[in-house]
Amino acid sequence: MSQGTLFDKVWDAHTVKVLPSGQTQLFIGLHLIHEVTSPQAFAMLRERGLEVLYRDRTVATIDHIVPTENQSRPFADYLAEEMIQALETNTKENGIPLYSIGSGNQGIVHVIAPEQGLTQPGMTIACGDSHTSTHGAFGAIAFGVGTSQVRDILASQTLALSKLKVRKIEVNGTLGAGVYAKDVILHIIRKLGVKGGVGYAYEYAGTTFEVMSMEERMTVCNMSIEGGARCGYVNPDKVTFDYLHGRDFAPTGNNWDKAVQWWKNIRSDEDAIYDDIVVFDAMEIEPTITWGITPGQGIGVKEKIPIPESLSDGDRAIAQEACEYMQLSPGTPIKGTKVDVCFIGSCTNGRISDLREAAKFAQGYRVSPGVKAFVVPGSERVKLQAEAEGLDKIFVEAGFEWREAGCSMCLAMNPDKLQGDQISASSSNRNFKGRQGSSTGRTLLMSPAMVVAAAISGKVADVRELLS
Q: Are 26 and 11 in contact (CB under 8 A)?
């Protein structure tokens, strides 16, 4: 087993005890909740006569079911309105802060916690959402949990978990022009597989990650779960500290200096022992797109859709199923595939740096006729910042719709949905069947810049051709 890694240090620091089952009872430093997975958890507390143990360690927001066009209440979707009302009631009764629409702090849970400084190195973080791994970018150990575990955290501030192995994933070198953090994680998942990380925590390291911004690191950690890992993290460094300094909930004064010193100490030791180490060369990564129905079915923009018969026995059946569902012909280039909808947003790529980069490519161009393209900021703060910089005007002039903050078409638990067998160029994180709201809808995952390139051409395009 691993020794001396950040994962080991944070795990040990938060261990309450080892249970008879062999699992660890782990203290959770920060609990994030939203409207979808919390109502049942609060109901279970009431049934048992239990109260929330540490109210100051839970923070709530509204994100999954929020409309991104008309946000007036009551919502047109009565089930969405019921969920938001339940969250409002539960947080009020239990004294839990709620970042609701119009508060200036509402947004996707994995966007608002980092931008407010709630997420900090060395924390254990949990949320009833699989992409909680995002917070590992700060050197935290962050887990997505189910509704019953949301209940357990509310009642005891602890979780029963089996300790994970630790795989170090090194990426070294400089990324090529037009290649982004999204391409890095899609490449990693492509190579290691969607089940490659089962039983592991992923530690991302190497010179490529050292020069990434915090928001780029968040993109990579966000999709650790797509690679089968329970969590993913980056060791905290000056980039981390500079990002956190001065944010709402960051330590101040002498407490800041003490915090930074502790954060430095929890980094993985130079002689740390890992259960596995995998190394990638950044220069081998190109703009990457998923062509199938799992995040592991990705290829470079210049590659062709795989021929199922040429794949291993384990990959052949799912590749055949994917080609049939996606209505794509094996052996044909992915570049040039017609798209109907182009979506920029989600907890993977809905931050201010994502919108800035996308706007660079949108400026001076127009969305192709017949393509629906829209941009959904990850939070109200991101939206305000983007508007202050004039990014909204760039997108609107290019033919994109500019929306309010929310999860939007990433999972389509709101009005933003694909229709029929439309095909989407999406900056989100999952391309499962029906993920974006239609049982026959098709999703191609890619970076925000690549989404813009697709929107402009009306088909999958290489964003590097726009660099000139």
A: yes
